[in-house]
């Protein structure tokens, strides 16, 4: 059995998955990696972990790591896709992109999946609604051409 420190050192070469990679509510500029039709709304770390376990892939959950594009989104998963001889552990999944697609399909197939909106998103929407809209001030002066 490996200690957590040994797993952390070993997992530095593994592939990293952040939930926003497969979040259909985000844009590609905000971090989504797949097309909206292939994604799911608000994926959770535990859902992704369950999918990886069902695929037979070794993974480590890091709940306190922040997503680089949005510091409010916490959590990532490190996944070991390849053995030391560079062969994939699961022959269906040969790259990170196919892994993301497979995870999204598995999450969609979860029966009675509850879509939970993260609390920081609801707070941001409330602040956005309460923020007054500032209009540009236009001057009533007409510009005249010099004669």
From TrEMBL:
Keyword Endoplasmic reticulum: no
Any GO CC annotation of this UniProt entry: signal recognition particle, endoplasmic reticulum targeting
Coiled coil regions, renumbered to chain: none
Cross-referenced InterPro entries: Signal_recog_particle_SRP19
First-listed, main subcellular location of the protein, grouped into a coarse class: cytoplasm
GO MF term (any one): 7S RNA binding
Biological processes, Gene Ontology terms: SRP-dependent cotranslational protein targeting to membrane, signal sequence recognition
Region feature Disordered, mapped onto this chain: 126-147
Subcellular location: Cytoplasm
Keyword annotations: Cytoplasm, Ribonucleoprotein
Keyword Cytoplasm: yes
Skewed-composition ranges (Basic residues): 138-147
PANTHER family: SIGNAL RECOGNITION PARTICLE 19 KD PROTEIN, SIGNAL RECOGNITION PARTICLE 19 KDA PROTEIN
Protein name per UniProt: Signal recognition particle 19 kDa protein
Organism name: Paramecium primaurelia
Phylogenetic classification of the source organism: Eukaryota, Sar, Alveolata, Ciliophora, Intramacronucleata
